[in-house]
Write a structure and sequence with these properties.
Blueprint: H1 6-18, H2 23-30, H3 34-46, H4 60-63
Helix pairs in contact: 1-3
């Protein structure tokens, strides 16, 4: 799985939901695939991002990775 930093995620949210660029344009700028852009934007809205709010703020909590679920990876004893 590819990890994208908070700045890139925030950029995608801004370009799609505020500037209203097409996913193909966002991919050309950020390298994020359209499906990834859609997921990031959907999660940002679920987490309270409001593109109609003035001032429009993309907060870390809107684009942060969720904690991983499942069993922790094994640590090697040294």
């Amino acid at each position: 799985m590819v990890y994208y930093d908070l700045a890139t995620r925030a950029q995608a949210v801004t370009l799609k939901l505020i500037v209203r660029l097409e996913n193909s344009q966002i991919e050309a700028i950020t390298g994020l695939k359209p499906r990834t852009v859609n997921k990031i934007c959907d999660r940002a809205i679920e987490r309270g991002f409001d593109p109609q709010r003035v001032p429009t703020l993309v907060l870390d909590e809107h684009v942060r990775d969720m904690p991983k679920t499942g069993r922790p990876s094994k640590q090697a004893d040294h």
